[in-house]
């Protein structure tokens, strides 16, 4: 018999995996991403940990006042959760075993992603539930230093995000998803820094509220990652060629903006509804940016409408210099921060008794 039996049969799933060289390149990239995001997380975590000490330096007081490092730390930890899952997948692909690749897409993802997602949730909740009570108002110089430091910390993550944007998916199939997760801290860090600077310019309340809103982004993405990782444990193992690390659709939509079609595509396939051809949505999309700009300008202009209560008067400051005293009523001034009102108590009588004064008889007459 001349039947030729091949000495080595390559499984179909293994043949569909990236080559060893491509997998090794993806693994090296995942390590560098983990190192970059890990160093930023260590800096932010150390800054947050110092706020729990008894040191009273100016910068530490400012960090403790609003937990400035908490929300950026949550965003960086969310990106680290995705990087950890991608590293596990790249390591399995480098070994060239289809069974290992399929297994790495299930319970190892849960073991890597869920603990980091829990840390993200804890860090995102710090500004709301762990604010330092009875602290002094923010010092402008200190807030500028803290805000500038947060903006500078976003630079290495921005470089990593740009590298992922140009990275070929054949070397690391999780690159598009990781780009979305890295885009999150590159937005959160400068935004938090800008809000910290705004707090020093006289708007600490507004900065605190907007920071709390920013915390919803990493919290929601972390919840999605954790649910996806846990859900994979109850699904059959995917083919090795289709196995991927846990990704976040919210993060990809944030990174890709209007180009993200993850929500419209299922509606088109299953219900036959094509939003791309809707003239109403096209009109809304075209008018959204101008309308938003008009609303922002109108809202800013309304900050120039000031109401002085009946029991107060206010000193009107224009560009930081006092101009005149405003009496009770409705007044039009320059919008914030060009014009400000300093309320002054008016018409209230304070009475303080001395030791030798007789106590007045306040019993009602019969």
Automatic annotation (TrEMBL):
Membrane recorded as keyword: yes
Origin: domain of life: Bacteria
TM region(s), chain numbering: 33-50, 70-90, 111-130, 142-160, 181-201, 287-308
Species annotation: Rhodopila globiformis
Swiss-Prot/TrEMBL keywords: Membrane, Transmembrane, Transmembrane helix
Protein name as annotated: Band 7 domain-containing protein
Statement: the UniProt record of this protein carries the keyword Membrane: yes
């Amino acid at each position: 018999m001349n039947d030729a039996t091949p000495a080595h049969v390559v499984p179909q799933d293994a043949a569909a995996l990236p080559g060893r060289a491509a997998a090794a390149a993806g693994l090296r990239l995942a390590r560098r991403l983990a190192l970059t995001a890990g160093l930023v997380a260590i800096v932010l975590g150390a800054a947050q940990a110092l706020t729990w000490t008894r040191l009273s330096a100016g910068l530490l007081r400012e960090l403790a006042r609003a937990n400035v490092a908490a929300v950026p730390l949550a965003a960086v930890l969310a990106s680290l959760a995705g990087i950890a899952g991608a590293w596990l997948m790249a390591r399995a692909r480098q070994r060239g075993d289809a069974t290992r690749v399929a297994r790495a897409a299930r319970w190892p993802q849960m073991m890597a992603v869920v603990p980091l997602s829990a840390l993200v949730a804890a860090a995102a909740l710090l500004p709301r539930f762990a604010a330092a009570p009875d602290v002094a108002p923010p010092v402008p110089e200190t807030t500028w230093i803290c805000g500038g430091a947060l903006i500078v910390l976003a630079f290495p993550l921005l470089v990593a995000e740009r590298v992922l944007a140009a990275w070929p998916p054949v070397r690391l199939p999780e690159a598009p998803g990781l780009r979305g997760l890295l885009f999150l801290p590159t937005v959160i860090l400068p935004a938090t820094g800008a809000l910290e600077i705004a707090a020093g310019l006289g708007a600490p309340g507004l900065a605190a509220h907007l920071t709390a809103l920013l915390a919803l982004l990493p919290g929601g993405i972390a919840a999605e990652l954790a649910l996806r990782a846990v859900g994979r444990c109850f699904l059959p193992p995917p083919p090795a060629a289709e196995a991927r690390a846990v990704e976040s659709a919210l993060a990809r939509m944030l990174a890709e903006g209007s180009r993200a079609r993850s929500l419209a595509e299922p509606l088109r396939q299953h219900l036959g509804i094509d939003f791309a051809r809707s003239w109403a949505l096209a009109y809304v999309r075209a008018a959204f940016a101008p309308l938003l700009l008009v609303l922002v300008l109108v809202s800013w202009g309304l900050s120039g409408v000031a109401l002085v209560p009946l029991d107060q008067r206010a000193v009107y400051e224009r560009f930081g210099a006092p101009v005149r005293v405003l009496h009770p009523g409705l007044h039009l001034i320059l919008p914030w921060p060009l014009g400000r009102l300093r309320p002054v108590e008016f018409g209230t009588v304070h009475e303080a008794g001395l030791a030798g004064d007789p106590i007045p008889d306040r019993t009602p007459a019969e």
